[in-house]
Amino acid sequence: MLNRLFFALATPFALSACVTAPPAPLASGTPPAAPVASQTAQGVVSAADPRAVAAGVEMLRDGGSATDAAIATMLVLNEVEAQNSGIGGGSFWMIHDARTGMLSTIDGRETAPAAATDKWFYGPDGMVLSPRDLYQGGRSAGVPGALAAMAKAHQQFGKLPWAKLFEPAIKLARDGFVVSPRLHNGLNLYGRHVTGWARDFYFDAQGNAVPIGSTLKMPGLAKTFETIAQDGADSFYSAENGAKIAAALNGAVHNPSVMTVTDVTGYRAKDRPPVCAMYRLYKICGMGPPSSGGITVLMILKQLERFDMKKLGRASPVAWHLMAESERLAYADRNLYIGDPDFVSVPVKGLLDPAYLASRSALISRESTMSDIEPGHPVGAPPRQQVAFKNDPGTSDLAVRDSAGNVVEVTTTINGYFGSGIAVDSYMLNNEMPDFDAVPDKDGFLVANRVEGGKRPRSSMAPTIVYGPDGKVRLAIGAAGGATIIVQVAKALIGVIDWDMSAQDAIAMGLLYTPGKGGVIEAGSDLVPMLPQLQALGENLQIAPLGLKANAVEQVDGKWVGAADPRSEGVAMDLAGNITQIDRRDNDLSGAHD
Asked: How far apart are the C-alpha atoms of 378 and 592, rounded to whole Å?
């Protein structure tokens, strides 16, 4: 109901679906009315908020590349979806360059302060801090990497001037934007830890969150964006701004950090090699370490490849049971072996070796559920000890295809809702540090994802680009929702490849999330009636809400269309203003992550 209300608000951002004339030039942050059809428009943007999508489409209309559109989209998300992403966080980029046919991936993941040790999350009493202390306050934040990744992507693949990409976000921050249900609910449910400017901005004196439909103006953020637009991303990583970030985190009332100016000025986004594998006739490419998403998605799919998923079909409890078992095996390896490759040896080739994956797949039975789930022993694996997974909830995803054929998929995050709860110059700083394992060793072995100075924490983000049998890009997809991201992407790929579904329908399909023994069936989904049959196969599952959110662009019969999760406020829009029709679902964020 709340999501429907947002789209029905009588504001400049309301969407119309019955205009046949060509749309007027797109005002910054304002989605145009949707014409009936367009057979020629080949540019399309999908993201978690219509105002952010509008900014991306504006860049495409002005001759920008998919990279330009992605940057403009992300900057507006910083405002309208500040609970999930922004320049105080990080991102992973996947970019298909139509001119060369090459695929590039950029790592804009946050880094630990240089002074961080493996006892970063221990208190004076020698015990691990409480969850509240882990996820809130100064010590929870890493050095932001989002802007460095944007600048790197723009330098390599941008067409429009850097400053132009900021125009929609600056206008929206200055003129104001309407508070959506998702922003309001996020504040009510998970925003009580925000402090300082953010507390005063998002809550009234009685502690009530800004109401749905109210207008927020962010002149401070407009000024910040104007500076970065004029002086470049280097201004964000300057000593002056680094001192602001360090002061905010080190001066935090709760759990202060020891970040230095040098931590900020020394940050660099990095080129990383993608990870790719064939599934059926499709080449699927994802982000490599420090993201665990790409490898784990590929492992899930490859372990299922020997089963006839197409014949089983989406209505088969056996198909979903097989997916659940494959998830368990893949997550076991993910938790044990994947970390920052600059600090630990990650056996990428061994984990994706066909013989190794065949041996893991052999553990899966159609008739029963595994009693024990243990990590395997891929070639090149150093001795490690298994550790627990954690969610990184405050995340957003976007996908773009431009008229030249360039495709961009970006997942961007500040981790938990509103990150650390600490703001600098009107943007929220992340709380990515808890994505490290708080306990650095187990049974005498150092864990791969332990805290170290300058290290990047493991992530579940899984931006993915799929090439069809003809070698051309068929689909770009990603998701938000912590450790569920991996399963959301894998499930959607099975839907598209095995079950001949559109990306829109595959994203909307229910989720079975099984990262270990037991698991969760998404409440209210089409999978709930299967519970008795799944239980008969040995599955121990609970029905519970899951905070899910995915976006995609895909090529269908030579035409590019977008897809957005019906659980979110997201939309997809092409150059002609056609907006993907989405059957919205109520989403009260009770899943506790996005």
From this structure: 34
